[in-house]
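Standup notes
- HV: blocked on the assembly model, inputs below
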Amino acid sequence: MISITFPDGAVREYEKGSSSLDIAKSISEGLARKVLAAEVDGQVWDANRPITNDASLKLLTWNENGGKSTFWHSSAHLMAEAVESLFPGVKFWVGPPVENGFYYDMDLGDRKISEEDLLALEKKMKELSKENNSYTRKEVPKAEAVQYFIDKNDEYKLDLLEGLNDGEITFYTQGNFTDLCRGPHIPHTGLIKAIKLTNIAGAYWKGDDKNKMLTRIYGITFPAQKELDEYLQMLEEAKKRDHRKLGKELSIYTMDEDVGQGLIMWLPNGTVIIEELEKLAKETETEAGYKRVVTPHIAKESMYLTSGHLPYYADSMYPPMEMEGEKYYLRAMNCPHHHKIFAAEPKSYRDLPYRIAEYGTVYRYEQSGELFGLMRVRCLHMNDAHIYCTKDQFNAEFRAVNEMYLKYFKIFGIDKYVMRLSLHTPEKLGIKYVNEPELWIETEEMVRNVLKESGIPYVEVEDEAAFYGPKIDVQIWSVIGREFTLATNQVDFSQGRSFKLQYNTQDNKTETPIIIHRAPLGTHERFIGFLLEHYAGKLPVWLSPVQVKILPISDKFLEYAETILRNLKKADIRAEVDDRQEKIGKKIRDTELMKIPYMLIVGEKEMNEQKVSVRRQGKGDIGTKAVAEFIAETVLEINERREE
RNA sequence: GCCGUUGUAGCUCAGUGGUAGAGCACUUCCUUGGUAAGGAAGAGGUCGUGAGUUCAAUUCUCAUCAACGGCUCCA
């Protein structure tokens, strides 16, 4: 007998060799039907794998992460089985579960796969699912495994085997399909009831663009059709929040083939948002002791050689223009220009910290396949600033920058984000990172300390730093589920030296300042893209391009509407009158769809009482107010930058 | 940049080897209406661009540009 400890602490005795599934059955048949896998002593196991020793046990169903990922992993095998039966001779690479579903990478040889093939594959998968084949695990000696794949002429699995040792190699078989796989898997294919293959994509073998491109098929499965339907419904809802769709519907921005890929033109509505964001940034930065500067969008090659950018980043800069024997680059970053401003006049320790800010326009030649609405563009406007300070001042300065981030997040109600402390990799010193091993370790520790002291939650990642120092990236997710760096905050111990930036210390020696690069609001492009999705287009009043729409019941009341419009404009409220000859219902509908926060409905009753009927977007009629009262309240809402 | 899909009116989308349609938007007229679509008429497209096949191409083929889904990349 073995004793099994359950998550609630209960301990029960079972026969040696019982599987998690057997144990689940002893509790209830209903539970046993839902069990997908089990955590045995903290490791995820097949539910039908015999347990031979005393162990702790947690049964995993669909709602536990381990359960879901096992389910999708097994679904990938089911898909592979279907692919193999429809396309014999296919060779498989890997097929892991991902956040929403799974994929499998494969080499189809000369064959191409089409959308229709996906439907055929889905159908086949459903047939195979109905066979209720169990996933069976088998430990295989390495030599035997190698021979198996030599016989199959499968160089991909042989490559995988190279990294594995004898004794840790397992095969899984369901139906007619056997795969080299660590597992675990769900008990049988019949659990996979709802299947949707979502798309076909190319993917480089081992994620390296020098390697061959394999075919990747993505799919998602669920234990019940209802859940698949809900998932598809959710995708539809997410599409409505897509900033590209909202950007068009709300006339925020446009692009044009003649202008170029990834080059945004902001329409009047989008420009209002930009100006409000800049106003916020300028207020905040002025209060925090920043001074503003303005610098050109281009510079000579020599500056980017000095800064050290060219060897690292020439590929993502627009190619240089030649003028009178000089090469000029469109800038991809603002820092070198700012360093030149620091260097323009001699600095003393009394001038530090020296903080300069600019909404800097930069151009980056992003690969064409990477461009994505407002989120990834080739001309961007950064909420940039550089702080030059002494080592002693660094902690306080870096901390203040982080506090500014948090202040902004509060204004915009951003609570889902991750601060990512990006570190260097020692092996890449001198290749991807400046070769200053001690300085790297020292500055990384300085940054880590600030994060710890501020109590900001963060994760550490290796090999993500800038070439000149560690950084903190703020990661957010678009409604489509793509991850983006919204803002960045970097330490630079390198460029100060390369630009020979100096200040005189108290005892009249020269020192090089530490530089902090920071952009809490990221770029206009990405930040507005994010805000559109974040608010589903329903921007807070202070950001709304049109804040108030006045809707006369009929054109008898146009004159009264115009009077109100003048008063609103005097109070700096962005307002318009709907003077079309339409019924009030139509005017309301159109204004609602344009997501304008306030509608003022004026007819005979309102005119006689010198009032307005107020309607809030998405909320409906909120009653009648005197014009002055509405203006006072709205001005307050705008000035406080309230979200609702 | 790579793999795949797509490209018809301002928007959303039908359609065809014999030079094109709907709804919404737009213009004009009627209507002057009380909290999410009043009615009628009209205008608008060399079917992304270039070449090829054909008596004839928006439709078939190729190239190219762009968008979309991924991969790679992301200062």
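- HV (later): unblocked. The radius of gyration of chain A is 31 Å. Chain A has 20 helices and 33 strands.
- Next: hand off to the docking folks.
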